[in-house]
Amino acid sequence: MARVLVVGAGVVGAACAYFLARDGHEVTVVDRGPVGAGTTSRGEGNILVSDKSAGPELALALRSAELWRRIAERLGADALEWESKGGLVVAATDETLGALREFATLQAAAGVWCEPVEPGNLSGYEPNLAPGLPGGVFYPGDQQVQPVRAAAALLYAARVDGATVRHGVEVLGVRRRSDGPVRSVECRVDGAVVEIDADAVVNATGTWGGDVSARIGAPVPVLPRRGFILVTEPLPHVVRHKVYTADYVSNVASGAAGLETSVVVEGTRGGTVLIGASRERVGFDTAISYPVLRTMAAQAVRIFPFLDRVSLLRVYTGFRPYCPDHLPVIGADPRIAGIYHACGHEGAGIGLAPATGEMIADLLSDRSTFVPAEPFSPARFVSEAA
Amino acid sequence: MATFTFDGRTIPFRPGQSVGAALIAAGIYSWRVTRVGARPRGLFCGIGVCFDCLVTIDGAPNQRACRAPAADGISVTTQRGTGHDDLAV
């Protein structure tokens, strides 16, 4: 068994620790801050298969959706605020409905359970939806968790299996054995530099995956994309599913640098309704942009008119870490034996976390992976010359 | 003296008083029922921070009684739960 240091106590690091500890490895999770304080707490807790087109990420998402079900069963749905609520994607125009239906047909061929919804049936799914929308597609497989609680529950389970979790630990670099592989990790703890022995290091630092990968001598490109989420006052049960407009799909897949917004509306167990989602490439700037918030609110009111009578409590913002090719980077680094990356999941890190953790555990134990791992390999960012 | 109504009862107030202050002066300490557990709520911090004193004013729920100025003729009503039960599906 290996001594594995997982860097990052967000949901991806927690999922890696969960699967690695179950394999019997000696796992230590370190984070400079608390559980889920970086990337994990800044999203909505989406576990979506509906927004992914057929391809490697969808395969990973389908596996992950199955693993989330099993985790919820094992750890208890309440511990994660897990809900298997399904997603309803609505089209605002006949044109987008056509594109959505085409998209769904390809997804269905790739194993996604989806059901077309005729305009007359939309209100059966969501009684508060604006009348007159041309139609949509329902995805029963979409789920939701409270992301920080989910990360904490996974870490707790990992600790039961022997893992150690340490906070206030900042990774500075790795030291290598004379023959090349990782020997230990240099960290700063309470202002002092300490060395933690490790045979393997997993970089699960989300938005900061690029920075940490450079510190440990195995850089991979992970970039921040800013997103805002609006939070309403607590309401009764007003929105049954995850409801979003079809343009969210094209925005997630887009390489555009400018602001993109679409509507994603969902209720939470706490009663608040979350309204997303914006995406902007503005570096690590966390400043609130009121024009963006206004656009998001107006779009949400167009599909759920009742929202114009509801107050917002707050707004939060965070970064969706993405790689230039919009696939996460998961697997062994080809440059330094013992370094693994598990980051760059963009807006899908919560959803993809369990399948990522399982893949890392399978790769570390030299097992075949459930989903082919090659498309996610860090090798794609390492040039032959290097 | 100017007045408003609370659940139909007439409440007098002095200029500048908040709805919450006028209710307290009238001997009313509770004007909300929580959405979980149906517990009574009234003023707690009294300075606009804690959101415990929420009340419905002229049909609009979730107004802080400690911040809302009392005004002649407004209708203040006990708020039950979120105050948005009409939206439930």
List keywords for this structure.
heterodimer; A: 386 residues; alpha/beta; FAD/NAD(P)-binding domain; D-Amino Acid Oxidase, Chain A, domain 2; 2 domains; eight-stranded mixed beta sheet; six-stranded mixed beta sheet; 30% helix; globular; B: 89 residues; mainly beta; Ubiquitin-like (UB roll); five-stranded mixed beta sheet; three-stranded mixed beta sheet; 8% helix
Structure notes:
The complex is a heterodimer of chains A (386) and B (89). In chain A, 30% of the residues lie in helices and 28% in strands. Chain A contains 10 helices and 19 strands. Chain A has helices spanning 11-22, 56-75, 77-80, 94-109, 122-125, 147-160, 209-215, 247-253, 290-303, 349-364, and strands at residues 3-7, 26-31, 46-47, 87-91, 115-117, 135-139, 143-144, 164-167, 169-176, 182-189, 192-197, 200-203, 223-232, 242-245, 260-267, 273-279, 312-322, 329-332, 339-343. The model of chain A has no long low-confidence stretch (mean pLDDT 94). Chain B is mainly beta. Chain B has a single domain (3-81), classed as 2Fe-2S iron-sulphur cluster binding domain, sarcosine oxidase, alpha subunit, N-terminal domain (Ubiquitin-like (UB roll)). Chain B contains 1 helix and 8 strands. Classes of the chains: A alpha/beta (386), B mainly beta (89). At the A-B interface, loops of A face loops of B.
Termini separation of chain A: 31 Å
CATH top level of the largest domain in chain A?
Alpha Beta
Query: What best-fitting shape of chain A do the alpha-carbon axes yield?
Result: globular
Question: Nearest-angstrom radius of gyration of chain B?
Answer: 12 Å
**What radius of gyration of chain A results from the CA coordinates?**
21 Å
Strand order of the largest sheet of chain A: 5-6-4-14-15-16-13-17
Work out the oligomeric state of the chains in this entry: heterodimer
Q: Give the mean pLDDT of chain A.
A: 94
Give me a quick take on this structure.
The complex is a heterodimer of chains A (386) and B (89). Chain A has 386 residues and is of the alpha/beta class.
